[in-house]
Amino acid sequence: MNTLQSIIIAVVEGLTEFLPISSTGHMIITEKVLGITETDFIKVFTVAIQFGAILAVVVLYAKKFFDFKRWQFYVKLAAAVVPALVLGFLFSKRIDALLESSLTVAISMLVGGIILLFIDKAFKKPTIDSEEKISFGEAIIIGVWQCIAMVPGVSRSAASIIGGMQQKLTRSAAAEFSFFLAVPTMLAATCYKLLKYYKESGGFSSEEIKQLAIGNVVAFIVALLAIKFFIGFLKKYGFTIWGWYRIIVGIILLLLIWKGVIQ
Predict the structure, then answer these.
(1) Which of 106, 167, 171, 217 is least surrounded, with the fewest CB atoms within 10 Å of its CB?
(2) Percentage helix, strand, coil, to 5, in the chain?
(3) Where do the DSSP E strands lie in the chain?
(4) Stretch 51-65: mean pLDDT, rounded?
């Protein structure tokens, strides 16, 4: 993977991490299109640059993240992230295996798109319009929903937002809590992947460090713009357009796989 390829993947990550269209799925397909050979470092790279994207959340919502008087906020995030930490640790190898499957991504994109077409109508009467009103139990349930996104192509953002709406959160409140929840989730995943790779490979080369640095900076900048766009768009238009997007992409991917263009 060269510098230009790492920048392209980071742009894809920054654009898609907080949209309900699966950042992992888009990065996997981008790698295939760019002809990047799947290696242990590439797997680490696609997870680690998500750290840059989640830093964008911390910057945009700095008042909330650094208001230490509101301890309940931190406890809710800690409780919500536990299911993902447990399942991620137990099924790490199976998840890594799925990351190599373009077919899994295509099917997940298609099915997820169909589901998104009906989300706005399924949850019509929300009662929770801010994070402060979310109970600890509701936070944990949203965290369980997030675990569905361990399947490539599902979208962590979509899974946790749907989980929030199922718990009576408004679209915008569910989206914001999904952003907040991304911080401990992706921080834990990034640290785990980096530490594991460091132990198994004996460290990072100077080129790998450069690629990680560039990827995180680019993902951070792009994610800042994407988050602001998504909240406003979601309030106005809902999920339908994202559902159709996923369906179209899923069908295209299935055709490309069928034709042998993507393995």
Answers:
(1) 217
(2) 80, 0, 20
(3) none
(4) 90
Band of the pLDDT at 227, cuts 50, 70, 90? Answer: confident
Sign of CA dihedral 81, 83, 89, 92: negative
Q: At residue 128, what are phi and psi to the nearest 5 degrees?
A: -115, 115
92 by Cβ neighbours in 10 Å (0-12 / 13-18 / 19+) ranks as middle
d(CA 134, CA 128) in angstroms, rounded, equals: 7
- pLDDT tens by residue, 245-255: 999 999 998 99
Domain extents in the chain:
3-258
Quick one: which H or E segment has residue 22?
A: none
Q: Residue 78 has what pLDDT?
A: 92
For tokens 């760019």, what's the residue? 34
Q: Quote the strand ranges of 197-245, DSSP E.
A: none
Which of 2-11, 22-31, 80-89, 198-207 has maximum average pLDDT? 2-11
| Cβ atoms 12, 27 nearer than 8 A | yes
CA distance 249 to 33: 14
Q: What one-character DSSP code corresponds to residue 193?
A: H
Output the pTM of the full model. Answer: 0.85
Q: How far apart are CA 160 and CA 165, in angstroms?
A: 9
Neighbours of 104 (CB within 10 A): 18
Q: What is the C-alpha separation between 88 and 105, in angstroms, rounded?
A: 18
Contact 185, 18 (CB under 8 A): no
How far, in Å, CA of 23 to CA of 160, rounded? 14
Residue found by looking up tokens 């920054």 in the block: 14
